[in-house]
């Protein structure tokens, strides 16, 4: 097997002269072909750690990311799957990304193709086309990429000579159903153990000459975490809800049980390919944990990656040693980085080698003097905190388990040590939210600003508080999976109110997401198989969602704005992540009770006024 460093390069294009996101397409005449090859070669030239095997004698997998190169390459899950597949001696894995916008318009559907980076093969030529799915809003790009390659989007229309299409990643694990018609199978949950099993099975089935049908049914029966949607039938009742999801054959499992990796130390999850154009390009990414024991009621990562697991110090140190040969900064990645029992030791280890650590967002109640000293020592100038809500009642509804005093103490500690930038995450459109909760965000930020500026008085200048305002989107497999999305207009008004409150404050910057895209995300998160029709229309109408929602005979509000019932079958009920519905209902009810109890108290107070 040849590794990246074994290959000589002679291309003279400076990658920085090219479009920000690499163009992997280009037309089908000779000049264009030459240009594409040159661009791909230059991309590889700038990377460290890619694998290029000789095309011809391997089972071939094209690993696709349905977004641009710089985003896909910063995804540790994507990189991990690339490594696992290339570590299988009889498999070859290459990458492909969404072509840059503006350039793909030149391409006639299916005629120009879309090519892998390493051997520059059309994605239609691979045995397997595997999509890494982290964000629902990327789903339309899958169909766009298939279209460019001339691959029929629906699995049932693809003959044996087309690649076997696989999906995986957190978005698919939460709810693969909107994509059910397009994929032959999904590999859900964590890849490290199941992917090699899949490869062995695939190879053996190939050796035995099994056709696709036989391969898929064998995989579904034999390997956990695998879901072949075509082997399951969904029936709908007259009110449009799901009546049942059942296996077409009695031998198939009733539910898809997701098993998690028990010992994450058995796998070395770290950056595989380093590239100057990827997001967070200055950091070498190292995983420190999976899951989070806090179980905030809105947080999918906490419920999907249970139980919480931490990589050991020795394994992390080995990753750091390796990473420092490539970069001078180590990005510690995980859902609960600040809860790692050895975090101080890890950071000290990085400092001892004259390098810096990037910590991501920190748990507010874990920030103490020692941690702030560490942050300072690592030259970190921006610290991200996530109060998520301004009022205590909303934080309790979310089960954030932090008080205003905790938030102030953290902000003061950071300001006291002259950390010049704070980033604060808040959500709007939360279950049970009222106008006073939006006012509470504004008040809380005002207080933080006041405290921070007081601490900074006479010292080095404080730079900025950045408020990142996101709309709450109900996610499958969480206690809030039954909640509707808040109306897009009302969410927009709440965001505007916060923006207006700080319009004149030079040191407070408000950034936010766009409510209409939250609607799309909610639809693709909570939808069932029928939503696939919407995705096909989005592709046909080139992303004109307004037109799509007018044209298709599917009521998208049914999925997005409807309060779901506990006893109804939800599209993702086929997936068993190991968290019982009973436990989720109990958590949901606790949240509702909090709102109701507080409402009763308010009513009591109000009535008392009139005695
Ligand atoms: S602390 Fe963060 S990662 Fe953990 S459950 Fe809450 S939101 Fe999720």
Describe the structure.
There is one protein chain. By secondary structure, the chain is an alpha/beta fold. It folds into two domains: 4-231, no CATH class; 264-520, TIM Barrel. Helices cover 38% and strands 15% of the residues. It contains 20 helices and 20 strands. The strands form six sheets. The chain has a six-stranded mixed β-sheet with strand order 2-1-3-4-5-6. A hairpin with a 5-residue loop joins strand 7 (232-236) and strand 8 (242-247). Helix 3 (76-87) packs parallel to helix 6 (191-207), helix 12 packs antiparallel against helix 20 (581-608) and helix 14 packs parallel to helix 15. The chain is globular and about 75 Å long. The structure holds iron/sulfur cluster. The site of iron/sulfur cluster has 10 residues, from helix 8.
Write down the CATH topology of the largest domain.
TIM Barrel
Alpha-carbon distance between the two ends = 85 Å
Count of helical stretches? 20
Give the ligands present. iron/sulfur cluster
Q: What is the total tally of β strands?
A: 20
What general form does the structure show? globular
The domain tally reads 2
The biggest sheet amounts to:
6 strands, mixed
**Radius of gyration from the alpha-carbon trace, in angstroms:** 25 Å
Helix content: 25-40%
Strand order of the largest sheet: 2-1-3-4-5-6
Strand content: 5-15%
What top-tier CATH class of the largest domain fits best? Alpha Beta
Question: Spans of 5+ residues with little confidence (pLDDT < 50)?
Answer: 1-29, 103-111
> What class would the helix/strand composition place it in?
alpha/beta
CATH homologous superfamily heading of the largest domain: Aldolase class I
| CATH architecture title of the largest domain | Alpha-Beta Barrel
Task: Round the mean pLDDT to the nearest integer and report it.
Answer: 89
